[in-house]
Design goal:
Pfam family, one: Peptidase_C14
InterPro entries: Caspase-like_dom_sf, Caspase-related_regulators, Ig-like_fold, Pept_C14_caspase
CATH topology of the largest domain: Rossmann fold
Helix content: 10-25%
Distance between the termini: 134 Å
Signal peptide: 1-24
Structural class: alpha+beta
GO biological process, one term: proteolysis
Number of strands: 34
Largest sheet: 6 strands, mixed
CATH architecture of the largest domain: 3-Layer(aba) Sandwich
Keywords: Signal
Amino acid sequence: MKQLYYLLPALCVGLALQFKQAQAQWVSSSSSRQSVVWHPAVPRPTAPAQLEIRNISFADDNGNRKIDARESFTIGYTLCNTGQGTAYQIRPRITVPPTIGGISIPEPADIRALNAGDTLRITQRGYASEELQDGTLTVTIAATEGNGFIPSPQMLQIETYAFRPPQVLVAQTRFSNRNGGVPKSGEVITLQMLIENRGESPATAVTARFTLPENIFPGDKTDFTVGTLAPGEQRIVEFPFFTNQKYTASSVPITVSLSESYGRYAQGTTATVDLARSLARSEPMVITGAAASAVQMGGKSLYSDVDLDIPQTRRQQPNLFALVIGNERYGEYSREVDVPFARADASVFRDYLTQTCGVRPENIILLQDATRAAMENAVERIAGLAETYPDREKQPAEIVFYYAGHGLCDDRKDGYLMPVDVPGTQVRQGIRSADVYNRLSRSGAARVTVFLDACFSGGARGEQLLAARAVKIEPNRDLIAGNTVVFAAAKSNQSAHAYADKQHGMFTYFLLRKLKESKGQATYRELGDYLISEVAHYSLRENNAAQTPDILVSPEAQEMWNDWRLSGN
């Protein structure tokens, strides 16, 4: 009994020791990462291990070599043991500075052992949340080893790009009925809404829901699927509705709620129609291109009068070739100010060429927001089309060149048309206007007509380029040759302005209006006189700024240009 008394404490100690050893022998990770089983008792090395981190790589989901907010990415690296002994209990880690928010990189599994001469490729996938800011992320790739044979840490620098949310809103609204005039009870009224994404990221799963007062009924449905809107993209939603005899209010408020996939970046509005006022007649809506984000169009009509009812002709001019350029979005390429309505100017002018002047669509090159390379190629191509026109012996080719955008003049008094990817500080990287005139005239075209809704005084539509000088330099006037006529939007020391209410450039609006009124039959003399008179007057009235169009005629065309017509003679 006495022996048992002495044995019991020893037995208890032994059992406890065995339990502790068993507990220490197998430890299972309970973290959310891959379950790892390892032996905490690190074997003693018989030879030194030498770990190295090599072959670091980076990849992101959209392939722009940056970490964008709301994007996943991977960092890969190779762990090499170049020593003579085995490395044990290796714990690789990628460390993000605590001052950088929005980056999460889960830890990889621990490595039980890496034999001498062996390598192991490790890939860690991370994610950037909306908290990420613009900047540079420096991560440290390192590892620990059970016996202290740690590799030298490696650094990796990656650019980060903050989240640019979409911004979905109603840019314009317009009420109309079938025949125009004051709407009657029971008559269908159509609310047209221009929904636009003015943000810098695509908006997905965009929807619109209309809410009506009592005694107002939808013509069809109240929920509309808009879909995905790219940055700057617009979509038109038409919502018909009607009243009954019980509705006695003088106006009808229609509320639209917008939503998108994030649930935070869409803003609805309430549009109100006055039932005592005449409405516009319902017409097909003409929206050309995406509006510049800097242009606030709320409260304006959805289209200009010159955009609709374009005169039609059956006459064809297969010998007429046209290059039409509308450079509007400079801010996306060169940090210059945009040119409001330039895209619409070019697009609608193209429509007048095809529908009113009989130019074949395949004979027109339309460029929107053109780079230098695109403009140079297009000038060469349109000249080449005129040079190779098969029937030029019977009917000589003609060329029309239209440009809306920024212009500048260098210190040698040479005027330049500015592509969207050339900043105003590098004026000679633009397209020299004299080179354009000369190339088009050398094509052998019987007529070259140029329309420039631009100026060379350092800006367009009242917006100044960065390089605009306090002292204006007037461009040369004697640089055109061949049978060439140039209609310029303004004198050399003036700016070309917009006509905001008409959503066109001032010069282009009256150019289109004269083509519409005359059905393309106005002579160049009539067109020139009209442009000078109307633009000069309305620019002062609308913009409080002087703008007088200018007409430049080459010596060869002096005796004949007055009777030329865009629709042909």
